[in-house]
Structure formats: C-alpha cells, structure tokens
Design brief:
The complex is a heterodimer.
Chain A: H1 2-29, H2 34-46, H3 49-74, H4 82-98, H5 105-134, H6 138-158, E1 181-185, E2 188-191, H7 193-210, H8 212-222, H9 224-229, H10 234-259, H11 273-283, H12 288-312, H13 317-331, H14 333-351
Antiparallel strand pairs in A: 1-2
Chain B: E1 14-24, E2 29-39, E3 43-48, H1 54-61, E4 69-74, E5 77-79, H2 84-89, E6 92-95, H3 107-112, E7 118-119, E8 122-123, H4 125-138, H5 154-167, E9 172-176, H6 184-199, E10 203-208, H7 211-217, E11 220-225, E12 228-234, H8 240-248, E13 266-276, E14 282-292, E15 296-300, H9 307-314, E16 320-327, E17 330-331, H10 337-342, E18 345-348, H11 352-356, H12 363-366, E19 378-379, E20 382-383, H13 385-398, H14 415-427, E21 436-440, H15 448-463, E22 467-471, H16 475-481, E23 484-489, E24 492-497, H17 504-511, H18 517-520
Parallel strand pairs in B: 3-10, 3-11, 6-9, 9-10, 15-22, 15-23, 18-21, 21-22
Antiparallel strand pairs in B: 1-2, 1-4, 4-5, 7-8, 11-12, 13-14, 13-16, 16-17, 19-20, 23-24
Classes of the chains: A mainly alpha, B alpha/beta.
C-alpha cells in the first residue's frame, strides 16, 4: 500500500526530471544555456508576487478541467468534452451573472457558480444519457458536443449577447458577481478562485475515497459486471459521472469569467484548456491531489516560458516539448518503472 | 532429494527440469528451492493447496514470471524463458485456469489469433475455419467454431483454450485445473484427449486438486505445500488419503457429514420461467421449481444448458421473459439486483473474475461489495473504514484467505483465494442473515482443505433454515450436499431425484438428455468409479 503510494508519486516526479533533461539537450542544441533558461523560467513563474499571481490565475481553470477529466477516468469514462462543457458552463453562468443585478455578493457568487456548473453538467449529461441508454461511446458524443458548444457560443456573442464593436463579447457581468480579489500587483490580479478550486479538489478526493457513491463509481469503472452484481446501477453511475465531470468543467468556465477581467463571455474562451485537462489528469494520475500539482506544474511552465522567451530568446515551444515528454512518460509508466527497478538493482548489487 | 546433482548431469530424458527454483513476491516466498522433474511423454500431476505455489511454478515455466534463482531445462537444454513467446518456441503450451480468450470474437478466430493463415494481408477465414475444425475433430474437442466466446459456456471456452495451444503445436502441455468446470463425462472425454496426446509423444503436466483424477490418469505426482515440494511419488505407489495428508499437512475428511434436513416453509418458488441468452435464444424454457427453508436443492447439468441464465434471472442480472419468481410471498420477478439482495438473496456467481470481484480493488473493498450501502459498512453515505478494515481482517482469518493481507488487490490473489473471498462475503451473516443463497460453483478451483470448510459452511447455513440453490459442475459436490437434485437439459428440468436413489452414472446419463434413467442403466457406462 505504502509502496504503491510512493510509486504513484515517483512516476510523475521522475518523468518531469527526465523531461527537463531532454529539453535541456534541445536548449543546448539551439545554442543556449539550459541552466540559465530554467532559472529564468523559475523566476518567471514564482519570482515575485506578480509572477505567483499569474501562475495561480493560469492554474485555476487547468485544475478544474483536470479534475473534470480525472473524475471521469476514475469511473471508467473518457470525457473528451471538458472543452465544450467549460464553454457551456461559462455561457449559462455568464448570462446569470449579467442579469443578477445588485444582489449581495455572498448570494450572487454561489448562484453564478452553481449556474455554471449546471450548464456544464447538463451539456455532459447529454453524452451520459446517450451512453447509458444507447451505448453511444462518450468519446464520439462529447467531441461532437464540443463543436456544437463552440458554434453556439460564437453565435451568442455575435448575436443575442453581443455588445459594443470590435471583438465579439457579451456585456460585463454584474459587480456583485465578481470574485473578491486577494492579490493585486500592477496588471495582475488574483481572485479567490484558486482557493475554491483547491477546495473542490479536496472534496473530490473525499468523495472518491470515503463515500459509498465514490466506491460505486470507481467500481463501475473497474468492472461493470461485478458492480452490477453488487447491486450498483450502471446507467445511474454513467449519467452521474458525466454530470459531475461536466459540472467541474462548467465551474472552470464560469470561475474564469467571475474572477478574471474583462469579466465577459467572449465566445470560444477556453483556448484548449478543456483538452489540457486530459493531460493534467494523466500527469496527476487521476488523483485529485496529484491533479493539483500537475495543474501547478503546467501553469508554472507556461508563465515561466513567457519570461524565458522574452529574456533568453528561447522559444516557448520548449514548454510544449516538456509537457509532451512528461505526458508520454507518465502514460508509458512502464518505462519509468523499469528505470526505477534498474537503479534499485544497481544499488542492490553495489551493496552485495 | 535431487539437491546434490552435478552441473553436467544429463537431463535429456526429461521434458522439463526445474531446479532449485526460488520465487519471492513482496509479501510471500511462493517457491522455495523447488525441484520439479517431468519425464518425456509422461502425464505428471502437480498437486497442492491454493497458494502452495503450483501456479507460480508453472507461470515461471511458461515465462510469465522469471525466477529469482534456479535453472530450467527443456528437453535437456538449459534455457531462459522470458515470456510466453519463448515458452511457445520451446513447445510449451498452457491451458490457464482463467481463460485468456477474446470475448467478442469467434471460436476459430481465437484459436488462430497470432498465427492466422493469411491471404495477402487478410485473414484467410476459410482456411482458418478448416484447420480449426480438423483440429477439433482430431482431438474430439467438439465446439461450434462460429460462436462468439461470450455466447458459449465455460466448459466450451476451455475446449477453445486447449485447441489454441494444440494449434500452436505445443509438445509440453500444462493443464491448470482443467476439470474444475467439467462434468464427469466431459472429464472422461478430456482424459481420452490427454491419453491420445500422450500416445503421440506429448508430455502433460496436470495441475489438479482432485485426487481421484490423479489416480486415474497420471504416472507420477509431485506434491507441493507452502512453496515447497513435499513429495514426488509414482502414482501406483500411493492413494488419495496419503496424497491429501501430504497436501494439507493433516488428515482431511473427504466426505461431507450432514444430518437429514429439517424442512421449513416454502421460500422460493419459480414457475414457468423463460429466459433468453446473449444470442437472444431461449436458454431457460419454462422451468418450475420450489425450495423450502433448510434444504439444499442441487442443480446438475452439463455447462450451457440454461443454468447460468436461470441463476442470473433469479438474481436480477438477466431479464425474465415470462414466468414468476416468488420469494417468501413477494413477487421478485425482474427486480433489480440490489432489490433482490435487499430481499435476502445472496449469490456466489459462477464466474468470480467477471462478476464476483473487482480485481483493481483491495480485498477489504471486495468484502463489502453489494453490502456497501448498509449499516454498519457505511453510514450517511460515508464508508465506515474502521469497521470495514476490522471486518475484512476477521473474514480473511475465518475463511483462510491467503495471504492474510486485506490491502492486497483482489486481482493479485490466486484463483482459489479469490473464491474464498467471494464465499466469505456472500455466506457471512453481517449485516443480516440471508434467507436464501444462490450458490454457483462454490468450490471451483479450491483445494480440499478449503472445500471441506466451504461445504461445512453450506451445510450449517442449511441447518439454520436458509434455503439453498446449489449449481455445480462437480457432480460429487451436488451429490454430497444436495437434499434434492434437479437435472437441467437444454433449458428444461429433465428430472428430479434424491441423491440416495440414483448413482453417478445414472445422473450423468440424465445430464446427457436421457429422461428415463431407470431403464437406461444397462446399456450405460461401464465406468467403474464408484
């Protein structure tokens, strides 16, 4: 048990180290100094309160979409639709937030977040129902729903919700619905969103590990036949998994509007972060606590890469390379495992 | 005994030599300096309790594990078997305890998989079918080659497994408890196949728990206990009692002792039940039966005669197309599995890997499957971890699940210990005593020590007034436990008998579809087993 946990922790950590080593060869090959590059990157991501705020703001939606996808994986469902669910959550939540008026924030914010979660949950449930009742595979249906969401949202910001000229955008949300800012340094401001997201990760952990419902969902993911035999309704499990996964993605969408200027719905907002969720869930090995660190890692790489590009003229594509290698290694954990065994054996023979 | 053998000794008269094999798992020493020698062309039995290390030893021969130390010689040649591919290269084939078949492919596709006859880049289906058909006829392994694996019985699946290794041209065949799922007739047929194989110069390693089978077909026996070889003996020089003692380390009761049943009121009544199988064909055709409190009703039958579908309909896992299932006056027809559990029916499923457990869950989570929503296992939607841990620790002890490690993943337990875990969960009284138990193949793959315990448990449940429906391929088990026996043939009940008015052979004939057993015995089998 202990060994398993240690192993689960070591695989991603070793993967990151290997990825950094490989990337440094690439940095060397373009004639730069990798140690310098990485130190600029670290300073760029964590060097001061502004950088930290930037990193944490970037991290928030990544964490939530990572949780969304990871939750699905735990119950044996491959939710590729976090992108679309995020958009739909943002859309529904934003419409509520625009029209909520002067209700006190303590009430307005929860209502808006819940609306966003409902938006994502309903969108995901379409795929859930289709899988439960017709067997339609969720990978196909969620991808198709992504496209519908994209087009629906472009239509909304250019049509019914459009205001002003220039880039399509919705009206700004009511002030009462904006998340309180805890850290403001020059242009960077960080809201309480990151704390909400971390709390959600902890709740998900407790749900999966401590509740009967979590026990059932994981059971269905592992072996639906045995779950059915154990009195668990597979249909209910599938729909619930999809709904919760979608709610988390929807939350990512709405929190990004409530907490980040310009506090407007701008259509195709998610910029691939729904898909990033898949990578983050993988790196975090579908464990909510692991996903927190995975989201932090990816967010830090991205803020740090800006600094690296500006100060050391190293293309920020290097970050995509690092990210790619980490995912590759985590997914093919056998490689890392063999490496670990190899070092163990070496130690063993040295001792003998 | 062979420990002081010299390096250069000639092993060429042995098909398999495994010398000083040590295999250490994280928590258990599975093989402790094991020596295992099999002569060419022999049928050699390997016996021992669950967890004695038989399967581990064979998995090393088949290349699934590599030994920590020790040497393996095949036909006198020292070799390192790094994987099943190597094993196949050395002519070793294995019929696994858990079948390694692809459920949604046909029989012939499974047989040729990996060695397909090709037509260009495509599978040459005609040739594949022909080859498989020839092979199945040659060795008397009748099977519908166009059926999908998921649609055929466990017994049929095993035939496919055997065909698979024959197709690969194996010379050394390992049978891992092959008769656990067969009827007496099927077992006889399998023995014919084995003898035929032997006559053609093949070597057979036969892993089993059933001592009369050892006596019937093998020339030599190796007995293992707790990871060590406790004896190697010529079959003609031993007897079941001696072997049992060598296996278990103490004397074992080979017979079940029970009193006459104290029948209570009617618990379950099934009337005119119709159920379809996966192919949407009628598998159960108008079955009627009743079970009283305190009795064991045994269902005998060749695998694939509707027993599986019948059990699944009663336990809510399959839709009843017509008919009624009444439990204590309540119509439970087509209730959900959960509702049926709540009504007090517990169920040991025939296929423990598919239905009975979640391999990725640790033992303690498997011990509560189906009861997880009930107090004291959980409260207000939260699992009661402390209770679950204590409870599982207790059950693992009581039912002798080895190793005694509730944190171990169920998938890492040996087959027999998985079964003990399922039996423990389903037959235990927490949180409430079941009213009725549907028990399918309860001792499949178990060793004699565990069988003794489970049989005693079943009898004591009966004596507490629980109604028991027992389905088993083990005719001996049906015979020694049941108060009444119903025989299934092609989805119908072909007769009802009591164990003391009929013999093994007669019931074997009924299982083959003969209704009128009392007149058919003269022309029947000349099998002399008692």
């Amino acid at each position: 048990m202990k060994q398993n946990k240690l192993y689960a922790f070591l695989v991603p950590v070793i993967s990151v180290i290997i990825a950094l080593l490989i990337a440094s060869v690439i940095i060397l090959s373009v004639g730069k100094n990798p140690i310098e590059a990485y130190s600029i990157m670290i300073v760029g991501a964590f060097g001061g309160s502004e950088q930290i705020a930037d990193t944490l703001v970037k991290m928030t939606p990544l964490l939530l979409t990572g949780l969304a996808v990871g939750f699905g994986f735990r119950a044996g469902i491959f939710n590729i639709g976090a992108e679309g669910q995020m958009t739909m959550g943002a859309l529904l939540g934003a419409v509520v937030a625009m029209n909520i008026g002067s209700v006190p924030s303590v009430i307005a914010i929860p209502i808006c977040i819940i609306s966003g979660m409902i938006g994502g949950a309903l969108w995901a449930s379409i795929a859930g129902f289709l899988k439960a009742f017709t067997g339609a595979h969720e990978v196909i249906t969620t991808i198709m729903l992504n496209w519908i969401a994209v087009n629906l949202s472009s239509f909304m910001v250019t049509g019914p919700l459009a205001v002003g000229s220039g880039t399509p955008k919705s009206p700004e949300i009511a002030d009462s619905a904006k998340l309180p800012v805890v850290l403001k340094v020059q242009a960077s401001e960080m809201s309480i969103a990151i704390f909400i997201a971390v709390v959600v990760a902890i709740i998900m952990y407790v749900y999966l590990e401590k509740t009967t419902s979590g026990y059932e969902l994981k059971g269905v993911g592992f072996n639906p036949y045995a779950a059915e035999y154990g009195g668990i309704s597979i249909k209910k499990s599938i729909i619930m998994t999809m709904a919760i996964s979608g709610a988390l993605a929807g939350m990512a969408g709405i929190v990004d509007i409530l907490g980040v200027p310009p506090n407007r719905f701008v259509g195709e907002l998610s910029g691939g972060r729904g898909f990033d969720g898949i990578a983050i869930a993988l790196i975090g090995r579908n464990n909510p606590i692991g996903i927190i660190f995975a989201a932090l890692l990816i967010a830090a790489l991205r803020t740090g890469s800006n600094a690296m590009q500006v100060q050391a003229q190293i293309p920020d594509d290097i970050v995509s390379i690092i990210q790619g290698i980490v995912i590759f290694l985590v997914a093919s954990e056998r490689i890392v495992y063999s490496l670990m065994q190899l070092t163990k054996r070496k130690k063993g023979s040295a001792a003998a | 005994m062979e420990s002081n053998m010299k390096e250069n000794i000639d092993y060429s008269s042995y098909a398999v030599v495994m010398k000083d094999i040590v295999k250490q798992f994280p928590s258990v020493l599975a093989n402790d300096k094991v020596n295992f020698f099999v002569k060419k062309g022999a049928i050699h039995a390997l016996v021992g309790e669950n967890g004695a290390g038989k399967s581990t030893l064979m998995n090393q021969l088949y290349g699934l594990y590599s030994p920590n130390s020790g040497e393996i010689y095949i036909n006198g040649e020292k070799c390192k078997i790094k994987g099943p591919k190597d094993a196949i290269k050395y002519g070793i084939g294995m019929v696994h305890q858990h079948f390694m078949l692809i459920d949604n492919q046909t029989v012939y596709e499974n047989v040729v998989l990996g060695l397909e006859p090709k037509k260009g880049v495509f599978l040459n289906r005609k040739k594949a079918k022909k080859e498989v058909k020839n092979l199945s006829e040659k060795y008397g392994l009748q099977v519908d080659i166009d059926s999908k694996i998921e649609d055929i019985s466990v017994g049929m699946q095993q035939r496919v497994e055997i065909l698979k290794i024959l197709y690969r041209g194996a010379d050394i065949l390992i049978f891992d408890e092959p008769t656990a799922v067969l009827t007496p007739q099927e077992t006889d047929e399998l023995f014919e196949v084995m003898k035929l194989l032997q006559a053609r110069g093949k070597t057979i390693i036969f892993i089993t728990h059933k001592l009369y089978e050892v006596m019937a077909i093998t020339e030599k026996v190796t007995v293992m206990r707790l990871g060590k070889v406790t004896g190697e003996i010529d079959t003609k020089d031993t007897n079941p009692k001696q072997l049992a003692t060598m296996m278990v380390g103490r004397e074992v009761l080979l017979r079940v002792e029970k009193d006459a049943p104290k029948l209570g009121k009617k618990i379950l009544s099934v009337s005119n039940l119709w159920v379809k199988d996966n192919r949407r064909l009628n598998a159960v055709k108008g079955v009627n039966l009743e079970i009283k409190a305190g009795e064991i009703l045994g269902i005998a039958g060749v695998a694939g005669n509707g027993q599986t579908e019948f059990v699944e309909a009663i336990t809510g896992l399959r839709k009843a197309e017509d008919g009624k299932i009444i439990l204590n006056g309540i119509d439970i027809t087509n209730f959900s599995p959960l509702q049926i559990r709540e009504q007090g029916i517990t169920h040991i499923p025939e296929d423990r890997i598919k239905r009975g457990l979640i391999e990725e869950y640790p033992v303690y989570y498997n011990m509560i499957l189906g009861k997880h929503e009930e107090k004291p296992f959980s409260e207000n939607g939260f699992l009661n971890s402390r209770f679950i841990t204590d409870y599982s620790t207790k059950l693992v002890e009581k039912y002798d699940v080895r190793p005694r490690n509730i944190n171990m993943l169920a998938g890492n337990l040996s087959g027999g210990n998985q079964q003990k875990m399922v039996v423990a969960r389903e037959l235990d009284n927490t949180p409430s005593q079941p009213k009725m138990a549907v028990i399918s193949q309860p001792t499949r793959g178990l060793d004699i020590g565990a069988i003794e315990y489970i049989h005693k448990t079943i009898i004591s449940m009966r004596d507490k007034g629980i109604g028991i429906l027992l389905i088993s391929m083990e005719l001996d088990e049906i015979f020694s436990l049941s108060d009444r026996i119903i025989v299934f043939f092609e989805g119908e009940t072909i007769g009802e008998v009591t164990p003391d008015e009929i013999t093994r052979e007669e019931i074997g004939l009924m299982m083959a579809g003969s209704k009128n057993v009392f007149h058919s015995t003269e022309r029947g089998e000349s099998d002399e087993t008692k």
